[in-house]
Amino acid sequence: MKPQETFGHTPVPKPSAVGAVSPRNIRIAIAAFSLVLAGVSASYMLREFAGYRTNTKEANAAFLKLQAMDHDPEMGRAVYTRIEALDTCLRAQTSLLSTMFVDNSPERIAQHCLESAQKILDDAPSFSLAYSVVAQSQVGLENWDAAGEALVNARATGRNESWLAQRRVATALAMPEPRSDAVEVALRADIALLLTTTEARGWIASYYLGDETVRPLIVAVAQTLDDRVQQQFLATIRRLGQGS
């Protein structure tokens, strides 16, 4: 909604002459306030910029960037900054490079990301993506029970958003079977959400085409949905899988 649609027709009262302040005093007050605001803004922007510098949308680059850090990645406080930094943690931990290093780099990154995500949850306990990073980090550290608990919490705090479901599904499928009942229920519910969401159907179809091991699970979930959804999913598979 545009600001003018909310406030555009509200009459602005004219200032009263009673108790008027001299222009000089107004200028002094504005200058003093500006100095305070500048100090606060500078501190805030430095924090946000540190978070922004951590972000990259290419998985291997994300891995290398986090690998070079000797501290927890800065998450910032703005929602967008946090989302980007958390996604960087997810990309780094699911990158090709993360499977190739024989040193402790993947585990060290997982631990740093785990601690950073937990700090966000301490401040914002309903931040669903942070739970997803906790889950992925616990997978990297092979703490399966903790990973499952975080995944269930991630779904509980973001059950209707497909972009979050994509991240949860990828993490859940990286866990060894048998998964706990709670994780399995959450995973199937997320797959159903992706199958019934137009903008996410291509993602789950790509997953279906790219990993034969998950096909039975995706098919089993699809069969619980109505015929229209199944036909749309099959059409998407055919479109993406031409020549496959």
**Mean of all residue-level pLDDT scores:** 80
In DSSP terms (H or I, runs of 4 or more residues), the helix count works out at 12
The profile of the biggest β sheet is:
none
- The SSE order reads HHHHHHHHHHHH
Rg over C-alpha atoms, rounded to the nearest angstrom: 24 Å
Helical proportion, percent range: 55-70%
Distance between the termini: 45 Å
In short:
The protein has 244 residues and is mostly helical.
Structure description:
The chain is mainly alpha-helical. It has a domain at 37-124. Helix content is 69%, strand content 0%. The chain contains twelve helices and no strands. The protein has helices at 3-7, 23-53, 59-67, 79-93, 105-123, 128-140, 144-156, 162-173, 181-196, 198-210, 215-222, 227-240. Helix 6 (128-140) runs parallel beside helix 8 (162-173) and helix 8 packs across helix 9. The two termini are 45 Å apart. The relative contact order is 0.06. Residues 1-19 and 28-57 have low confidence and may be disordered. This is Tetratricopeptide repeat-like domain-containing protein.
Give the helix/strand layout.
Layout: H1 3-7, H2 23-53, H3 59-67, H4 79-93, H5 105-123, H6 128-140, H7 144-156, H8 162-173, H9 181-196, H10 198-210, H11 215-222, H12 227-240
Helix pairs in contact: 3-4, 4-5, 4-6, 5-6, 6-7, 6-8, 7-8, 7-9, 8-9, 9-10, 9-11, 10-12
